Structure formats: C-alpha cells, structure tokens
Amino acid sequence: MALPLAPIAAVAVKYGALALAGYALARQVRPGHIAQPLEDALDEVPDGISITQPRDADQINSAARLRRTIRLGHTGRGIELDAAFLARLKLRWV
Q1: What mean pLDDT do residues 3-9 have?
Q2: 67 — phi, psi (to 5°)?
Q3: Taking the chain, what is the end-to-end CA distance rounded to the nearest angstrom?
Q4: Could you give the dihedral angle defined by the CA atoms of residues 70, 74, 76 and 77, in that order, rounded to the nearest 10 degrees?
Q5: What's the Cα-to-Cα distance from 45 to each of 26, 50, 53, 56, rounded to whole Å?
Q6: Is the pLDDT higher at 73 or at 67?
Q7: CA distances from 70 to 15, 49, 77, 79 (A)
Q8: What's the domain range around 47?
Q9: Does the pLDDT at position 28 exceed 70?
C-alpha cells in the first residue's frame, strides 16, 4: 500500500515555516539586564489606571498595574501575575 505523502508534506512545510520563523525571532532577541531602580519604580505603581497631564508640561503621563492570581485546576497551585506599565506621550508643535 502506498503512503500518501502530499498531506504529510503540507504539514511538514507548515511546521517547518513556523520553526524557521521562531528561529529567526530568537536570533533577533538581544540579552538584556535588570536595572534595580527601574524595578523599584514599577513596584511603586499603584493598582489600577491613572492618567495625568501636568499644567506646565506638554505631555501626558499614564501608569497602570494589574495584579492577579490565576489558579490552574484543582491542585491549588497557581501563577501570580503582576504587570505594571509606565508611559509618556509628549506632543509639541514644530
């Protein structure tokens, strides 16, 4: 009995392209470092979303923080998610 290669080839090409894209992405990522003062600033961001616009500056500052615990199944184990974001948008007429 002959083995149908066309469906297998299509799957191999699809996963091969996915693996190649993942390899290319991994080659582009540079190793980074952790700056402790920045980590401390992110730890001080309050929960929720805040947007401020100082009167003396042409900028808008925003901060957001989300803290959640996600439970996986009935084992009681979970993952703690702590996401903090700081953003600044500066606009000026030139």
Answers
A1: 80
A2: -125, 125
A3: 74
A4: -60
A5: 31, 10, 17, 23
A6: 67
A7: 31, 21, 9, 5
A8: 5-90
A9: yes
Strand partners, 61: 52, 88
Backbone angles phi, psi at 9, to 5 degrees: -65, -40
SS3 string, the chain, reads CCCCHHHHHHHHHHHHHHHHHHHHHHHHCCCCCCCHHHHHHHHCCCCEEEEECCCCCCEEEEEEEEEEEEECCCCCCEEEEEEEEEEEEECCCC
The answer on pLDDT for 1 being more than 70 is no
Cα gap 56→81, rounded to integer Å: 36
Number of domains in the chain: 1
Residue given tokens 């042409």 in the structure block: 58
Given a contact cutoff of 8 angstroms between Cβ atoms, the answer to whether 65 and 41 are in contact is no
